[in-house]
Amino acid sequence: MTAVRFEHVSKSYPIYSQILTGLKASLLNVPQTIQRFKRHRFMALDDVSFEVGQGESVGVIGSNGSGKSTTLALTAGVLRAQSGRVEVRGRVCPLLELGAGFHPELTGRENILLNGILLGLTRREILARMDEIIAFSELESFLDQPLRTYSSGMYARLGFSVAVHLEPEVFLIDEVLAVGDLRFQAKCREKLEEFKKRRVTIVLVSHSLAEVRGFCERVIWLKDGKVAADGEPGSVIARYEAAMA
Ligand SMILES: Nc1ncnc2c1ncn2[C@@H]1O[C@H](COP(=O)(O)OP(=O)(O)O)[C@@H](O)[C@H]1O
Ligand SMILES: [Mg+2]
């Protein structure tokens, strides 16, 4: 069964410098400016198609700006594609950029609740898991402080702890494993291995090719918003490394 399917997905962003110069022109000639806006869009993803089977662990690699985070945000439903189709089956648990879904003025405890609700759980379900989440995060003594007082490592701990305790069916991880101390990183890896054994679908974006090679069953290489290769980790990573050299 397919957990994630991208069919000819394209996503573009406006190029802001063009919009600013265009703003002046817009006072003079509106239709022409609209044409300019349309032409000056940057294709972050350009006709991307792939499937992730249920229970598969897939790595996404590529240089900065190749479209990895955009791919995960579309999968999580945080962004919408301009064209093509994105289909996802199962509860998605996204661990995207640091602190996404968190509120700095709320306490750690309140943020756990907020995050759980955003991910589709009821208050009762979250409260039932609260102790476990707190224990995993090792942030007990900070939990009643507002999140703005947390370091980036503490944000990451809280985010990871919430995500792994909400029984994800599709788990998305965007470069967050490298945050926090080594011991916590090891704990996160253990949790991921446990998910993999339980056949939770995992899409992992990481700059560590060693990590992707060691963990993923398949790798997708994105290059300039297109799929450059998709297949067995060893060969895709070798091709990527050759291209980078
Ligand atoms: N909100 C945005 N507005 C404008 N451009 C963006 C936005 N988000 C991403 N981009 C651009 O889209 C491209 C792909 O970005 P991203 O998916 O974040 O790449 P990656 O995660 O592989 O580094 C980059 O060139 C980036 O500058
Ligand atoms: Mg990124």
What does this structure look like?
The chain has 245 residues and is α/β, with parallel strands linked by helices. The protein has two domains: 2-90 and 169-244, P-loop containing nucleotide triphosphate hydrolases (Rossmann fold); 106-167, no CATH class. Helix content is 43%, strand content 26%. The protein has helices at residues 16-28, 30-39, 68-76, 108-118, 123-137, 152-164, 182-197, 209-215, 233-244, and strands spanning 2-14, 41-53, 57-61, 83-88, 92-95, 170-174, 201-205, 218-223, 226-231. Helix 1 runs antiparallel to helix 2, helix 4 crosses helix 5 and helix 5 (123-137) crosses helix 6 (152-164). The chain is globular. Bound molecules: adenosine-5'-diphosphate (ADP) and magnesium ion. Adenosine-5'-diphosphate binds next to helix 3.
- Compute the gyration radius: what is it? 20 Å
Alpha-carbon distance between the termini? 37 Å
**Which percent bin holds the helix content?**
40-55%
- The number of helical segments is 9
**CATH fold name of the largest domain, please?**
Rossmann fold
Structural class: alpha/beta
Number of domains: 2
Number of strands: 9
Please state roughly what percent of the residues sit in beta strands, choosing from under 5%, 5-15%, 15-25%, 25-35%, 35-45% or over 45%.
25-35%
Under CATH, the homologous superfamily of the largest domain reads P-loop containing nucleotide triphosphate hydrolases
Bound molecules: adenosine-5'-diphosphate, magnesium ion
Low-confidence stretches: none
Strand order within the widest sheet? 5-6-7-3-8-9
Largest sheet: 6 strands, mixed
Global geometry = globular
Reported CATH architecture of the largest domain: 3-Layer(aba) Sandwich
Arithmetic mean of pLDDT: 88
CATH class of the largest domain: Alpha Beta
Assembly state of the chains shown:
single chain
